[in-house]
MAM domain-containing protein
Amino acid sequence: MHQIFTIHNFQLFIIFLNFILIFFNSSLIVIACTQQYRKELNYLDYYLGISPGNEDGEIGVKEQLMDKYINIASQLNCDFSTNCLWANAPSDGLLDNSDFYLFQKNNDKSFPIQVGPGNSHPEIGTYFAFAGNLTKDPNHATLISAPIACQSTTGILSFEYWLYNNARIEVIVLKVNPTRGHLTVIERPITDCHYLKPNGLCQVEIKRQPQPFRLALRGFKLNDQTIGSFVLLTKIKYEANLCGFYVKWVHQRKPIMTTSDLNCGNEEGNEELFQECLWFDFSKTASSSVSHTAHWSIGEKTYLWEQIVRTPSKPSGQFYFQFIDPIAEFPLPQLRSVLVPCTQSPSTLSFKFWLSPGVQAQICTLGTDNVALSCVYLNEADVPGPLTVDIDTADHQPFRFAFNVLRVDREANGGGAVIALDEIKYNGWLCHEQTPTTSPSPIPPLASLLQLRPLPTANSVDASLAFPNSLECDFEQGDMCPHWMHNSYSDSVTDDSGDEAVDETNNQQRFRLGLVPRGILPLPFPIDGRFRGKYSAVAVLDLRAQEEQFAILTSRPIDCVDGGRVSISYFASPGAQLSVCANEQCVYPKRKRFGSQSTSEMSVALNSARPFRIRIVAERNRSFPIINGFYEPFVLIKRIAIQNKGFCRLKSSEEITCNLLKCLFNEEGICRYKSLFLAAGDVPFVHKKGEGISAHFTSGMRRAVLRSPNFRISLNSQIEMHLIASLSTFGSRLYICPNDQQQQTQRKLLAEIETMGEGMFVEEDDTLKELGNCEPLLGPKVVRSKMEHLIIQLDPEIRHFSLVAIHDKFEQFGDAQILIHSIKLNDLNGQSIC
C-alpha cells in the first residue's frame, strides 16, 4: 500500500525541502549543519521518494559544448541521467535569480495529489531538474540550452513537468549572449502548461528562427513564505529542422594567367558562378577550420538583410559573406585569393562591400610567408562602394589578397553581424604579360567628340531658376540645372564676390553640357551604355596643366539637413575622380584602374545644423599616369538625385533676399552690411545700442557708405524695402545707389586716389557727379532731426545697393549725423516676406 499524505504533513515537508535548497546555495551552511541537512534529506526521501542525483546536487552539463552550436535538434534531448546541453542560466536579477538542482526517484512512493499534473508514479531511477523556494520575494530559475544557429521550420520543444502551489513554467527563446549582463528575449512562445492540464506533457511550438538563439525553460512564481512552491521537470525533447550554418564551396587553386582571373561577380548578378572563383575560406589553424562557425560562404538570399546590415542597398545575385555569430571566436577565418605571381606595375583591386554596424574589417596583401605587406581598413561610410585599393608591387614578389574582420561590437549586434562582398575586380599587368610598347594614336579633342557647350551659370538666369524648390537635376534629359552652377568659392549663404566669372581661377575648368555618341568612341576604355546617346554634364581636365585641375558643381544654399542624402550617377575616366563636399568635408568614391569602367552611383549622407552648399568636384587623379596627348581625363554626370526627407525647406530667392537685407540695426548691429572706406574723408558707421547705426561727420569728414550683401530676386518679384532713418543737420543728404553705380563710383575714386595721393580729398564736384544716377532719399533740407519711414521698390535687375550719406556743408552748418534704425522687406500687401 502506498502511503497517503495529508496536506499538513506535505506542507511541513516543503519547509524542510526549502532548507535543503538553501543548503545547495551555501557551502558554509552545509559545513555548519551537516547533520541537520542529512535529516532533511531523510524527510525528502520520506515524502516524495527522491534524493540528490549526485553528491552536490548539480545538474550535469557538457561544459565544452555549451558554447558550440548544435548540429541536430536531438542533441538537446535530456532526461538528466547523463550530462546534457542544458545549464543554469547566469543570474541577472530579472529572468533568473535562482537555480535548478538534480534529484532522482529512489523508491516507489507516489507523489502527493498537490504535485502535478505529471505522472504521480514516476519510475524508480528517474532524474529531475528541481527548482523551488520558501521566500517572500519572487524567485525564478532558468535552464538554457546550447546555442542553435537557426531553425528553418516550426519546431517542438516538449518535456514532462510537475508544479506545486502556483509555481509556473514557461519556454523562452533567448539571444545567444546576454546584453549588458541581462538575458535578452527574442520571443515568448505560447506555453499552455499549468497544474490543471490533463497530463504532465508540455509541448511548445517554436517558430522559425532565422538568427542564432538559445531555448530556455524558466520556472517562476517560486515564492511562498509559508509553505513554498517548486517545479520538477524531466525528459526534454527538441524536434526541429536546423539550417546549415554555412555552405562550403569547391575552391580552385589554379594559378592566374591574368589579373582578371581574380574577378568574381558582376554588376547585373547574371550567370554568376562564385564556386569557380579563385577565392577561398581560410582558417589559421586546422582545429578552427573544423569547429569555427564564422566561415566565409556563398550567398544568394538576403532575408532579414536590413535588420542585420541596416542598409537598403543589397548585392545582386551571388555574393561572398561571413556571418559572425554571437559566440564566434577570434581570429576569424579569412577570405583569401590564390597567389598572384607578381605584377610589373601598380595594380588595383575594386569591390563592393557591406558591413553591419560595429564591424571593423580590412583588406590586406600577404606575402608567401602570410605576413601582411599592407592593409586598408573598410570604412562603413563607403558602403556599398565600389572601393578601389591601389597595390604597389615594385619588388615583383608574389602576394595574395585577404579580407578579414578584426572586431565586432557585440552591443550593437547582439544577434550577429555580417560582412558581404560582391563585384570583385582586379586590374593590372602580371610580370609575364606583354604590355604595349608603342603609344596609341592621339584621339580627337573631347570637346568636339562630345559636342560640348556652355551651361548657364546661376548669375546668368532669373532668380526663380537659380533658386528652385528642389535640388534635383537630370542632365540626361537635357536640363541645364543652373541651380548647380552657383559661385564655387563662397562659403556664405550669398556670393559677395560680385561677378562669378571674376572668381574663376586658371586651374578651374567649368562643367559643360555634352552629348555622348551612341557609337564606340576612340578611347582605350569603354563608356557604359547607359551614358551613350544621352546628355551629361562634362568636366574635361587639362592634361598639360602642372597645377591641380578641377571643376565644381555648386548647389544653391541649403539652410540645414538631418539625415538627407544626395546621389550622383557618374562616369570617371582613368585619371579623373569625383568627390562630394559640404562644410569643408569631402567624401571620395573609390577610383578604378586604367582599362576598366568607372561607372558608379555615389550616395552621400548629409547632416548639418547650419547653412551650407553641396559641392560636386571633378579633379585629376595623378596616381594614374596618362600618356601625353593620348586623351584628356574627364567626368560625366548624368543625374543628381536628392532624398528630400531630412532637408529643411528650400527658401525662395525672395525669402533669401529678405533674410539677407532685413536688419534691426538698433538691436543687431550692422548685420550683413559693410561700412566701406573708398577715399579719404569717408566716415564709418558704428553701432549705437538701442538707436541703430550712425555716421558722425566733423571737419574733413564728407561721406559714409553702407553696402548691402549680394541678393537675387526674380523678375516678377515686387518687393518693398522699408527703411527708417534720420538726418540731423541741414545740408546733409542720403542716397541709395544700385550696384553698377556704386561700382563705378568705387573704381573712379580709387583711380583718383592713385593719381592724387592717398592723403588728398576728392573734389566735391566729382563726388556729386558720381552720385548723379543715385536716388535721393533724405535731405538736404533738414528742419529738425526725426525718424523718417521710407518705402523703396527693389529693382529685380540689381544685385546689391549702397546707402551713401553726404555732408559737405560742415563750414556752413557744423557737425552732422545720420542714423539708420532698421530695414525690413514686405510684399505689396504689407506682409513681411520673412
Q: What stands out?
A: The chain has 13 helices and 44 strands. Residues 259-427 form a domain with the Jelly Rolls fold (CATH 2.60.120.200).
